[in-house]
Amino acid sequence: MLRHLFKWADECLVEEVEDIKSLISGMNKDISEFRLNVDRLEKEIERHLFKWADECLVEEVEDIKSLISGMNKDISEFRLNVDRLEKEIEVMKTASEGK
C-alpha cells in the first residue's frame, strides 16, 4: 500500500513538474514577444523624437532666416543714413569753407 502511495505521489509530482515546465515555456514565449514589442516601441519613439527634433530645427532655421532678413533691412537703412549724413557733412564743410 505504501508503495502505491509513493508511486502515486511520484506521478503527481512528475505531472506538476511537467505543468510548471509548460507554464515556464509559455512565459518565456510571452517574455520574448514582450521584448520584441518593447524594441519596436523604442524604435518608434526614437523615430518620432528625431522627426520632432528635425521639425524644431527647421522652425529655428526659419526664425533665424527671418531675423537675418530683418537685420539686413536695418543695415541697408543704416547705410542710407550714413550716406545721407556724409553728404550733410560735406555740405557743411563746403559752406564753412566759403565763409
UniProtKB/TrEMBL annotation:
Coiled-coil annotated spans: 24-95
Taxonomic superkingdom: Eukaryota
Keyword Coiled coil: yes
Keywords for the protein's UniProt record, in alphabetical order: Coiled coil
Identification of the protein by name: Rx N-terminal domain-containing protein
